[in-house]
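thread: overnight batch results

M.L. [08:02]
morning all. the overnight job finished for the chain we discussed friday. pasting input first so we're all looking at the same thing
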Amino acid sequence: MSLDNPLARLPSIDQLLINPACEPLIRTYGRTPVVTRLRQQVAGFRDALRAGGVTADAAMILTATAENLARDFPDRLKPVH
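M.L. [08:03]
and the structure it wrote out:
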């Protein structure tokens, strides 16, 4: 795929996993749920691009993933006393 193709500009799951912003997500939620949500987010952005939407960078994908995980696993964010 050419870099002129917006789909080719989406980061890979491996690139997202090694991004420093992904580390706290993995620590909090575990690798498997994070990978699952990353795949879902990238697929969603890919579908949006095919429908004429704008491309997403790693920060956008990781932010959306963090919001999704926080919504689905709210008990993981409770303070420890």
